[in-house]
């Protein structure tokens, strides 16, 4: 079994495990990484970009080195390599948990229990739920589903196709570090700069693929493309912008606008202005679109790896 088939079969098995089982209930590797990264932060923290860059290098670099060692130790056994890829994919993707949490908030809103919805919203995003009404909560959920489709699924598959198990692990490590220290709090404005910028870099290809696939799999490809073209660059995040704009156009809704993070109010541009306001029922539509995008991303990543290998092999043959 060649490396391309190892990745394709392993990633498919891992994504299937996520679809059927969701995240591991106990001993989640990402949670273990988060605890280790927290310990490193406590040891290294200084209000300085250089110390933050060292934190990023130690944590992300250490995770990638462990993944490289694990992959090399099993290289002689294609079956074991595929199982390692499957287990790693299951550990780093989170599409099923994303959909489960979104539906839980949507169910509370549909039942008219806004307090339960507010209590559940922090499982999805860091917004202040007390500052949101039912429509604001629904919009926040749809935006979180869109952005996390890229962060929790597509980006990992893209880097898995590029670099195998180390790519899967490295992407999740960087994304986790960004969530931990990459925000603009007083403590992390400088210390988290390196993690935030690295996350922008590694998230770039997955975000664009997510936006393309949302346009393909959504109900309005032209609307998705138009919203992406018109509004994505106005979003403060270089990667969330294309994803949220494409989802907004595909679903025919407006996203963006005023939001609050821990008491800090932000006025973000409206994405897909011609669309209608988000309704509770759009949460389920967003989750289904996310699922379709994830499955298409698996196919695109596996096909892309096979194509790249074929092209490189032919080029090597011409020069030999």
Provide an overview of this structure.
- By secondary structure, the protein is mainly α.
- 73% of the residues lie in helices and 5% in strands.
Q: Strand sequence of the main sheet, in spatial order?
A: 1-2
Largest sheet: 2 strands, antiparallel
Helix amount: over 70%
Question: What is the tally of helical segments?
Answer: 11
Beta-strand residue percentage: under 5%
Low-confidence sequence ranges: none
Tell me, rounded to a whole number, the average pLDDT: 93
Helix/strand order, N-terminal first: HHHHHHHHHHEEH
> How many angstroms does the end-to-end distance come to?
24 Å
Question: What is the tally of beta strands?
Answer: 2
Helix/sheet category: mainly alpha
Q: C-alpha Rg, in Å?
A: 20 Å
The outline comes out as globular
Characteristics:
320 residues; mainly alpha; single chain
Can I get a quick summary?
The chain has helices spanning 3-21, 29-44, 49-73, 78-92, 95-110, 114-120, 134-181, 193-217, 221-231, 240-251, 281-319, and strands at residues 255-261, 264-271.
Reconstruct the topology from this structure.
Elements: H1 3-21, H2 29-44, H3 49-73, H4 78-92, H5 95-110, H6 114-120, H7 134-181, H8 193-217, H9 221-231, H10 240-251, E1 255-261, E2 264-271, H11 281-319
Antiparallel strand pairs: 1-2
Helix pairs in contact: 1-4, 1-7, 1-11, 2-3, 2-7, 3-7, 4-7, 5-6, 5-7, 5-11, 7-8, 7-10, 7-11, 8-9, 8-10, 8-11, 9-10
